[in-house]
Design brief:
The structure is a single chain. With 381 residues, the protein is an alpha+beta fold. It folds into four domains: 5-49, no CATH class; 54-223, 2-Layer Sandwich (Threonyl-tRNA Synthetase, Chain A, domain 2); 228-259; 268-380, Roll (Diaminopimelate Epimerase, Chain A, domain 1), CATH 3.10.310.40. The protein has helices at residues 51-75, 103-119, 130-136, 206-226, 234-257, 287-298, 323-327, 332-340, 364-380, and strands at residues 5-9, 14-25, 28-35, 45-49, 81-86, 91-96, 123-129, 149-155, 168-171, 186-195, 198-205, 268-272, 275-282, 304-310, 316-321, 347-349, 353-357. The strands form four sheets. A six-stranded mixed sheet has the order 12-13-14-15-17-16, sandwiched between helices. A hairpin with a 2-residue loop joins strand 2 (14-25) and strand 3 (28-35). The protein is elongated, with a radius of gyration of 37 Å.
């Protein structure tokens, strides 16, 4: 992208605002301007470059050379530039390669460029004979025409002294930073395909890279808050949610196969003082699903109690009572707390259905064995 800026007269008045600067033919530089005052042929003027437009463009231009060199070092010297865009807010680089970069390759390229940035290598441009540049190993861009004298950019700790040790040597007529440290930070922003055998990456430097990282951090924080986790625990939380979703989808598929009916509670059935007590284990930790099992148990029954022991996760105890027991003043919450107390837990719920967490899941087995006696004491209370 061309420079932007202003054209002033000898009195310091702005004659025109420069919107773009390009080379339409040969070495002719054409400026697209928006005139503010009359422009007169032969009038001496001063051209002022907008540094807020040029400086970030310089950073992204130098970063393009570093990116090209890094890709060749990571992927091999068959990689060559196939197009690019250098703008104040980003860079876009097309290169020859036949498949997307892996996450490991992307990180390796990014790390290598940032390593050069931290070394604050000098970026030196000189005009030298074309043959000299060729012997130095300078890369020429596709479709470009070069004369006998070529401007050569060397990015190296040794400058032009030892071209064989340079990180990057390319023929280039554009503007660049003086040292790589001026980039501040280099960050890849995405990749994609352009055509068969041509890939594209986008990248950011300096303040643009920092802003992108800050925006990513904000999204990470919001995502963590959404799932009620700390940012450094977000991945673990998401993995847990994915596993839970897969489990629920599996159970939903089973319910659909059964016609949408909640599974029946199957376990040990005992008569405790005339009350039918069903004790069973469940591998579900979904309270709504367990509630559906409890509702099915209660349908069409009288004088019956269901005690479910959930052994997934932190463990739980669930109790369901038939309506006649509830009408007689019995409450599921009272019984579930008596049983859960044997494992160090407690809970509550509705009179006909209540749940409690297990303080120590390893003690649920003992709680199950003691349930008949606990129910007997509860009935006598």
């Amino acid at each position: 992208m061309g420079d932007k800026g202003w054209i002033k007269n000898a009195s310091g008045q702005i004659l025109a605002q420069v919107m773009d600067a390009q080379k339409p033919a040969g070495n002719l530089i054409a400026h697209l301007v928006q005139a503010k005052m009359d422009l007169k042929v032969g009038e001496p003027v001063e051209f002022l470059v907008d540094k807020n437009h040029r400086e970030p463009t310089m950073r992204h231009h130098t970063a393009t050379h570093l990116l090209h060199a890094a890709l060749r070092k990571i992927l091999g010297t068959t990689v060559t530039q196939a197009g690019s865009l250098v703008a104040p807010d980003r860079l876009r680089f097309d290169y020859t390669y036949n498949k997307p970069l892996t996450e490991q390759q992307l990180r390796a390229v990014e790390d290598l460029v940032n390593e050069v940035v931290l070394k604050n290598m000098p970026s030196v441009a000189k005009t030298v004979p074309a043959e000299t540049a060729r012997k130095m190993g300078a890369m020429a861009l596709f479709g470009e025409k070069y004369g006998d004298q070529v401007r050569t950019l060397v990015i190296s700790e040794k400058g032009f002294d030892k071209p064989e040790e340079a990180f990057s040597i390319e023929l280039c007529g554009g503007t660049h930073v003086r040292t790589t440290g001026q980039l501040g930070l280099f960050r890849l922003a995405g990749q994609g395909g352009v055509a068969a055998g041509v890939r594209r990456v986008e990248a950011l430097t300096g303040p643009e890279a920092y802003r992108a990282m800050a925006a990513m951090q904000e999204r990470l924080q919001r995502a963590a808050e959404t799932v009620k986790a700390q940012p450094d625990q977000l991945l673990r939380k998401l993995e847990s949610l994915v596993q839970e979703r897969e489990k629920l989808e599996h159970r939903l598929a089973e319910l659909k196969k059964a016609g949408g009916v909640a599974p029946a509670a199957e376990g040990t059935v005992l008569d405790v003082q005339g009350v039918s007590v069903t004790m069973a284990r469940t591998d579900s930790d979904d309270r709504e699903e367990i509630g559906a099992v409890a509702d099915r148990f209660r349908q069409g029954r009288n004088n019956a109690v269901l005690v479910l022991f959930g052994e997934q996760g932190r463990g739980a105890v669930h109790v369901a009572l038939t309506d006649d027991l509830v009408k007689a003043g019995r409450k599921a919450g009272d019984l579930v707390n008596r049983i859960a107390a044997l494992s160090g837990g407690k809970g509550g719920g509705r009179p006909q259905f209540a749940s409690a967490g297990a303080g120590d899941p390893s003690r649920l087995g003992a709680a199950l064995e003691a349930t008949p006696s606990v129910v007997a004491e509860w009935l006598q209370a």
